[in-house]
Design brief:
It is a single chain. By secondary structure, this protein is an all-alpha fold. The chain has a single domain, classed as Hypothetical protein af1432 (Orthogonal Bundle), CATH 1.10.3210. About 40% of the residues are buried. Bound molecules: fe (ii) ion (2 copies).
Length: about 180
């Protein structure tokens, strides 16, 4: 793990700062992300750390002192569900002293995706949507696709997430569109 904290210490922080179902989700993300990492030759340590921290800022109200370091773009300002991405990255950097750029990138990109997604970014994005506590039909389908092929799974996950945002008539962050246009074939 690339932090001055041990995995157990980080887990304690996450458990204390997330609702029980979100903590369960985090453990699910760790397990599925590690499975995907093994299949795709990605570092297990980085994957576990990124997965463990990906939702660390989810309870925004608990981390007010870190909000001042977060810079939202004009779209992010209007999309509250994505605030915890950049907030989580700040907590990882400032509190957990994580310096690894790949780990920070995966935390930052885990719900909007991005034009450039490295394998760890894709793994955390996918595991967030399709970890084994997610029981809905699309999650099962995405999980199977991801296990077959990381890119195939990523495109499917992105499509389903964009579809969800459109059907709910919510604002779609341009980064999701850029990711789509860059990775779809
Ligand atoms: Fe999240
Ligand atoms: Fe998550």
């Amino acid at each position: 793990m690339k932090s001055i904290f041990t995995e157990t210490e980080i887990k304690e922080f996450i458990k204390a700062n997330l609702k029980p179902e979100k903590y369960r989700h985090t453990l699910g993300v760790m397990a599925f992300a590690e499975e995907l990492a093994k299949k795709n030759g990605v570092s297990a340590g980085k994957t576990r750390l990124a997965a463990l921290l990906h939702d660390c800022g989810k309870e925004i109200g608990r981390h007010k002192k870190y909000m001042k370091y977060v810079k939202f773009d004009s779209f992010e300002k209007k999309i509250k569900p994505v605030w915890h991405n950049k907030l989580g990255e700040v907590i990882a950097r400032k509190y957990f002293k994580v310096k690894d750029k790949q780990v920070l990138s995966a935390i930052r990109k885990h719900s909007t995706a991005d034009k450039n997604m490295n394998p760890l970014d894709k793994i955390i994005y996918l595991a967030d949507i399709a970890e084994r506590n997610r029981k809905y039909k699309d999650a099962v389908m995405i999980r199977k696709a991801a296990l077959r092929d990381l890119n195939e799974g990523f495109i499917l996950a992105l499509a389903k997430k964009i579809e969800y945002v459109l059907i709910k008539k919510k604002i779609l962050h341009p980064k999701s569109i850029e990711a789509w246009n860059n990775y779809v074939k």
